[in-house]
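Need a sequence for this fold. Nothing fancy.
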């Protein structure tokens, strides 16, 4: 049930008109249904950055990407391989994660705190980032409504990512690239199909993950066609828990096919490997120890953009955040005060089994936006996309101190 107060009717009419236009262009999840009713997800505000701020965010995104790439290459090397177990990935995925890739991830979203000139990385969404349709289609529509220019270049970035992956994977022209997600989940389905539309390969097909047939011999469509190339908006760590109704371990079979490269993935398994938040702890630790991996310039970047992050709690008397290494959408996150008391926490228990990292707490800046419930003051999180290795646009959300799936999306422009 949704109740709009009389003073907010005018706003809601504007919102509904914009949402209808967005829905016609493939973005239809501007409101989300939860147990307590409908929640607004799409705001109609557009927040502006100065050209200098925009350039600084792009530069930070590029540099953070270079640090991640170098750490990935080190972890895959003989010298760095002893650190692999510290990523705390499920053992069933280790063989998959060791499949090499020239680029650690082709589709990345770094979540940043941008407060004046300070830019800090909270985490890297390197495996299955979303917010892509919002940052492309919806952002352009909101900017047009406010007579502003959308600075995002998401479509160009996706095309670049695909061209790079296609060149490096050498997919034959007669082969089909399959795209999968939960078919019943509108956001995942539409995001996946948006990414599909920007793939220049001549043969592509969307297939709901429910319709994929996995056996010990291979991965197939219901018609029996082999699936050899696959984009999936589905976390690899879920697979170890996936069983058919008959009890067959289809998830483990799928992991074997990926490890054997019977199925080649975009994003590649390296993106899953680098999704572990333990990566940030290893980057910080090796920088603190002046490891020869990093140049003096790179150590400056780490100190500038990364927060102190550890795999054991080093924050006596300092506010900090506890995060599962594979948590998503704020799942399982706790914010602790200087006395070690929980200030705020996410109740999602799925990720509770994973090991934790401990990260210095940094306050996100507050912004006030209009909503159909009236003015709302929340915390601003800046998602910055790195597509095909290059900065490609921003995804802004306003929510609570733990940014969950009910945080609101707003537009971005440069002025």
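Here you go.
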């Amino acid at each position: 049930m949704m109740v709009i107060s009389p003073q907010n009717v005018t706003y809601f009419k504007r919102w509904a008109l914009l949402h209808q236009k967005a829905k016609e262009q493939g973005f239809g999840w501007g409101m989300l249904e939860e147990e307590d009713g409908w929640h607004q997800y799409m705001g109609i505000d557009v927040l502006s950055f100065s050209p200098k701020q925009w350039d600084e965010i792009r530069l930070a995104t590029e540099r953070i990407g270079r640090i991640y790439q170098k750490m990935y290459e080190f972890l895959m090397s003989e010298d760095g391989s002893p650190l692999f177990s510290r990523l705390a990935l499920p053992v069933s995925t280790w063989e998959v994660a060791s499949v090499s890739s020239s680029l650690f991830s082709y589709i990345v979203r770094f979540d940043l705190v941008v407060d004046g000139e300070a830019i800090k990385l909270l985490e890297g969404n390197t495996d299955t980032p979303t917010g892509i349709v919002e940052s492309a289609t919806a952002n352009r529509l909101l900017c047009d409504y406010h007579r502003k220019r959308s600075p995002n270049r998401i479509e160009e970035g996706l095309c670049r990512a695909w061209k790079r992956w296609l060149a490096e994977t050498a997919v034959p022209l007669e082969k089909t690239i399959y795209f999968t997600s939960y078919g019943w989940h509108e956001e995942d389905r539409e995001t996946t199909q948006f990414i599909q539309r920007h793939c220049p390969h001549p043969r592509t097909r969307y297939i709901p993950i429910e319709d994929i047939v996995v056996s010990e011999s291979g991965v197939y469509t219901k018609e029996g066609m082999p699936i050899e190339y696959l984009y999936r908006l589905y976390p690899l760590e879920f697979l170890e828990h996936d069983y058919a109704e008959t009890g067959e371990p289809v998830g483990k079979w799928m992991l074997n096919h990926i490890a054997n490269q019977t199925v080649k993935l975009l994003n590649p398994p390296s993106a899953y490997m680098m999704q572990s938040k333990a990566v940030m702890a290893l980057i910080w630790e090796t920088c603190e120890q002046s490891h020869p991996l990093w140049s003096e310039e790179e150590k400056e970047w780490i100190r500038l953009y990364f927060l102190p992050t550890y795999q054991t709690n080093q924050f006596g008397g300092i506010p900090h955040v506890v995060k599962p290494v594979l948590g998503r959408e704020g799942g399982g996150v706790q914010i602790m005060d200087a006395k070690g008391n929980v200030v705020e926490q996410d109740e999602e228990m799925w990720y509770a089994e994973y090991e934790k990292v401990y990260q210095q707490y940094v306050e996100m800046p507050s912004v006030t936006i209009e909503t159909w419930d009236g003015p709302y003051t929340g915390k601003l999180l800046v998602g910055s996309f790195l597509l095909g290795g290059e900065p490609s646009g921003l995804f802004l959300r306003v929510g609570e101190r733990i940014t969950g799936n009910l945080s609101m999306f707003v537009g971005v422009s440069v002025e």
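For context: Residues 101 and 202 are 23 Å apart (CA to CA).
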